[in-house]
Amino acid sequence: MMPSVDHKQLPRHVQVLVAGGGPVGLAAAVELGRRGVDCLVVEPRATVSRARPRCKTLNVRTMEHLRRWGLAERLRARAPLPAYWSQDVVFCTSLTGRELSRFTGVLGLAPEGDRFPEIGQQAPQYVLEEVLREAVEELAPSRLVLGSKVVGVAQDDDLVTVTVEDALGDRSLVTADYVIGCDGPRSVVRDQIGSRYLGGEALRPNFGMVFESPDLWKHVVHGPAVQYWVVNPTAPALVGPLNRTDTWWAIAFGVDRATGEREARNIIDAVAGRPVPAEVRSTDPWTARMQIVDRMRHGRVFLAGDAAHLNPPFGGHGLNTGIGDAVDLGWKLAAVLAGWGGADILDSYERERRPVQERVIREATANMRVLSTELLADNLDADDEAGAEARRAAGARIQETKTAEFHSLDLVLGLRVTTSPIVPSEPRDGGSARWTGARLPHVFLEDGRSLYDLLGDHLTLVTLGHGTPEEAILEAARLRNVPLTVVSLPESVSADYAKLLDARLVLVRPDHVVGWLGDEAPEDALALVDTLSGRARRGGAAHRGS
Fold it and tell me: What number of CA atoms fall less than 13 Å from residue 213's CA on the CB side?
């Protein structure tokens, strides 16, 4: 294990410097470090703060990446809420009041056969950060410098020069082949490359807080749930447990900072539906933003995560989208630094990620249109027929307007790369256009292993059936020095899998995206390998970019 780096011992040069050691920056460092890239993460916080949980939903796709990094089980062991504990979201008038509606099997927390190898996980952001910090320190090429921040970025055709400042104001210069700005909404890197947010923000404020109430669970009448949407006029709110004993998070909708600080205890009582002993541990006023930068790259400098895009938290997509950015950019930078990736592979980063980010912003914004405040109605707690009718109407509206928020696996798993310089625009020599640029369909093997566990760290050729003519692809990869793993699925699954894909050969990228598929190697296998490795367009260095 390589310990965190003291500011006075900063290296003079690294291959990749990551500004910001939150989950996205750390994920980028893990992706790079596993591929042998010399990577330095610069993070102002010396320790991970547990005061604010921030993001709490790790979706199926993020858990698949954690599995690939060997970290999924470590994270689950640290998560205060085991996935089996609850897969429900409840809408109610209070924690002790009437139930209005319920969703089960939410947020990918329940298995669905072969569809994915890892279910989702509810965990505070700080748990993920702690696990990822450990992972970075365990990877010899990767290093953390804590208590310092990036304050300046300048570049030429060959290098990026980064100014790093410690807590005492002392500054040092570090050069890097590439820089990734993962330094959040107030990104210095974004400002330094002249990129800016486009979009808007919501008009309504929200007041977040964490509180402790050891007795609250005794009064909850709705059973375990990962979220409780409270619909009452005193405290329209969203609340959930951080553990199974005493700690909760809450968001009071339409409450500004001053009101929230003054009324926090009353909000807790209204959410509970009765007075309960409680102590507020932290507060976090915020307003939703729907923004994306005008460009995510300038030369050798890239933006990822909140430094590049912001969306409302409803649906739990923000952090997970940032992890997707880190994975995408991580393997592509590693390919270029290893010599097998060409200019197109870096150009593809924004081309592939921007449509994903824009769709996530649209979906999260749609989820925000109906919150507890929009569900308020008379008689929801009444014992008479008027109350029963009000609850039926509220339940119907909840099911109509909120299902997509809690059952979003088609968004999480169904995103497809449609315009990219490193994905052939048309399938070659047969194969289904449906799967080109999509996540490789998952399947468990007879021995219980996941297909994903067999895939390599670079490109993988999956062959389905004996005698599949793949030699031309293997030779093309050898001639271009492109690392290629070959996986032959056993007959017990290959026939059905080949029928699903309508192909017997599948080329898979490191991020599980199908790069190409067909029944036999294409006539020009070299051209295919050049496209997938980003070298189809001859000329130009890999560092070019807007």
Answer: 27
Between helices 318-338 and 343-367, what is the axis angle to 10°?
Answer: 180
Distance CA 509, CA 524 (A): 19
Strands (E), 221-376: 227-230, 237-241, 247-253, 279-286, 289-293, 297-298, 301-303, 309-310
Q: What does the buried/exposed string (b/e) look like for 314-350 if buried means 16 or more CB atoms within 10 Å of the residue's CB?
A: bbbbbbbbbbbbbbbbbbbbbbbbeebbbbbbbbbbb
Q: How many other CB atoms are there within 10 angstroms of residue 223's CB atom?
A: 10
State CA 383 to chain mean position distance.
44
What's the whole-number average pLDDT of the chain? 93
pLDDT digits (tens, 9 = 90+) for 178-231: 999 999 999 999 999 999 999 999 989 999 999 999 999 999 999 999 999 999
Which among 144, 178, 140 has a CA at the least distance from the CA of 159?
178
CA distance 387 to 226: 26
pTM: 0.94
If one counts every other C-beta atom within 10 angstroms of the C-beta of residue 37, the result is 24
46, 166 contact by CB (below 8 A): no
Distance CA 528, CA 185 (A): 39
Whether 467 shows a pLDDT value over 80: the answer reads: no
- In contact, 403 and 314? CB cutoff 8 Å: no
